[in-house]
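Homework-ish question, so no full write-ups if that breaks the rules, but can someone show me the predicted structure for this set?
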Amino acid sequence: MPQFRNIAFVASETEEAETARRDLAARYGSAAPEEADIIVALGGDGLMLQTMHRYLRNRIPIYGMNRGSVGFLLNDYHADDLPKRLARAETTVIHPLCMTAHDRDGVKHEALAINEVSLFRQIYQAAKLRISVDGKVRMDELICDGILLSTPAGSTAYNLSAHGPILPINAPLLVLTPISPFRPRRWRGALLPNTAKVTIEVLEPEKRPVSAVADNTEFRDVITVESAEESDIEIFMMFDPGHTLAERIISEQFGY
Amino acid sequence: MPQFRNIAFVASETEEAETARRDLAARYGSAAPEEADIIVALGGDGLMLQTMHRYLRNRIPIYGMNRGSVGFLLNDYHADDLPKRLARAETTVIHPLCMTAHDRDGVKHEALAINEVSLFRQIYQAAKLRISVDGKVRMDELICDGILLSTPAGSTAYNLSAHGPILPINAPLLVLTPISPFRPRRWRGALLPNTAKVTIEVLEPEKRPVSAVADNTEFRDVITVESAEESDIEIFMMFDPGHTLAERIISEQFGY
Amino acid sequence: MPQFRNIAFVASETEEAETARRDLAARYGSAAPEEADIIVALGGDGLMLQTMHRYLRNRIPIYGMNRGSVGFLLNDYHADDLPKRLARAETTVIHPLCMTAHDRDGVKHEALAINEVSLFRQIYQAAKLRISVDGKVRMDELICDGILLSTPAGSTAYNLSAHGPILPINAPLLVLTPISPFRPRRWRGALLPNTAKVTIEVLEPEKRPVSAVADNTEFRDVITVESAEESDIEIFMMFDPGHTLAERIISEQFGY
Amino acid sequence: MPQFRNIAFVASETEEAETARRDLAARYGSAAPEEADIIVALGGDGLMLQTMHRYLRNRIPIYGMNRGSVGFLLNDYHADDLPKRLARAETTVIHPLCMTAHDRDGVKHEALAINEVSLFRQIYQAAKLRISVDGKVRMDELICDGILLSTPAGSTAYNLSAHGPILPINAPLLVLTPISPFRPRRWRGALLPNTAKVTIEVLEPEKRPVSAVADNTEFRDVITVESAEESDIEIFMMFDPGHTLAERIISEQFGY
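A: Not a homework solution, just the prediction itself:
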């Protein structure tokens, strides 16, 4: 059983989260995140996502406790016995997507996405997109509000809203889901192997401007967007036994 | 059988449509639209919609002929025997929606929509909306990409892409359809009587800017949008017998 | 305000419903249903449906009170002040469907359906059906588990499970919804005017036997099924003000 | 490159398939299936499924050629150069599901399913089912027309009709999809790891009789049905290069 001696606490800006951070730091000490053995994130799913983004290259396990409004990625909050809980927690390893977007000015942007890469129309004109997988054009022209490529971890988020299926956390898959497909109208998207490289070209980008978003990082006026799993990057999320992300996702699948 | 003596021709800007316009005008004469007994629109569905918008207060029947890429609202193109075809054509009367939007600067905007009124997020932040029908709050908070209210005539357009049902052209209904509902996630929208007045309030409009669109007329940064059928305005669309809009919509329902 | 002097009470077979029936009969007297001014049905939606079927030709208003597991069609249960509540209740008039089925032995069966007429495969072989509306073949061959035609009142029942839309109670429409369409696969069904006569022919009925059901009345091995609204029959359902069926259906549409 | 010296030909009962069988046997010789290096199946998807079922324990590769109405699992038909085509063909290995059903008379039935195991109500009474995965009850009570568990190979078949997602052929997943879920109404099913053991209990089996089907093998009046991937059984399907089942499934995902 691993011992986590140096715990870092990060919190969202609400009073509730900030209070919890002060209490826990007083009880258990507090390291700087970069030097910690484990980071405890106090807030909601937004703070958890932000913390994973910030420290994903540090390979430090992250354990979230719910002090916010939604807690899909988080453990229940208790102040007591934290070192024992951390020692017993189970690890889920996930990989982000790497998105490379080029915009109309020729600028190249890169960003990582833990949940999904999405493209979206900027004005009332529907987006017109060409979709390629592994260098092969699979759909010549999709007229739509947008499209998203989601990881299993993200499949319960935006993907579900866009009527895509929930993936088991360990499935070696990505899910490509259209948003309001206009032509072809009844296209429901595709499940792809997690090795797939997906390229979206924006057609008629002057008339039909489109933005690209990796989780919460948005680039406007893109013309091509490439996405693929970054299997070299491992993010270590920690959960109490019986409440792992795999278990939550299966529960979510049987919820309604 | 009505006689249409003064025919006006309008065309989209493609060479094909323009050529047809010249040919037909040479054969049958050409009135100014405002003074015509009937307007013949040559192009695609976009031109037909645009023509209906332009002349909807003139109460002049509009007969479309397909010289464009999509022809749901149009008759087949033939140059011969036009007066006889027009005399035999059947009329479908439709009503537009009237949208009244207020923006963040306090400016009030009004526009008519033949197909639908839609609201859409402007940036990556999901829209947060409150929905009232006839003054009663029906959904306190919808987190989503957007929402649309469609007429029967528009139910085969954007509404269908957003997974809403197709309505018969004469059904006294409007259809309210969410776009990527995030919370509540599995909400599928509602069919409302055509007398319904629908009010959408944009919550947190600074953080979550939303635009409102009536067909192709867009207003940015709105904070409230009211929509209702404008039953006083009648638009007269003309179709060859056996190819009326009612028939097309039922065919579309049984297509796939 | 109508006065209901002679009240009949009917109850489902549970002890809870039977107790309520005895209590109310002791307080308010009890007429035979056929001679009553109003029938009060005590139980769940099943009893309510059954009561409407039994007395629909008697034109007696029916007021349900919930003593069962589901209460979509029912008012809340209170024993006090019943005459006053009945006098204030609002009436919703609905029409049943009339189903005429012919089976393989040449026998003709008729039954009424308040919710829906449905067809269903009897064995593992998928049903193969031909669909006509008003005498015109609209789908030559549908391979599926089955199909249903629902009234607005039934649209929240089986139709909703089969992914059909909810109709407002007063919409002059019927909804035709396929069950697991195999070919064409992405057909979602059709909204039809309430004047539509829908004919379903069972193809290859020996290999692919199909049963037809009007609410809970089932006929096996059918070969043709015709359904249409029986507009001559009026069923009077009574609801407390603010809790009418129209209001429940709109609430159901905004529920999730 | 493998050489297939002894080719067996099997055909469906249509004249077209039978003629092809005679022609090919005359040109290339004909072995008994049990002694062949490869079996060439001539017909539609039904014959292909039937051939795989019959010879799946013989571990003989099966190459289908389309002489029937649907050809998802089949190669194009050409009579020439067959040995060369077979030598170049690529192999897809799939695993069946093993279904173990117990009926009301205490009889135990076993059958394999290449596409899916499905349960279905036998009469108008909706099925009431309890769902467990790996011994843990995941849904206490599902009221529905039925439910199915599909392999990736079967995900484009019945599963797709019941609104389930298409799986890549190599995804280590099974998909559990409800048919017309009545309560919970908006349940969309679950993607499960291919190691999952799924148990369905039929509740109230006297009132609500249910049949279980493994591909085309049906057992009536079942009370429990257990299903799991039979990973020991390998079925070798052969496809022309560029037309593998993986490619067909991805094409199907991008079709509409």
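Now go work out the reasoning yourself. Hint: The radius of gyration of chain C is 20 Å.
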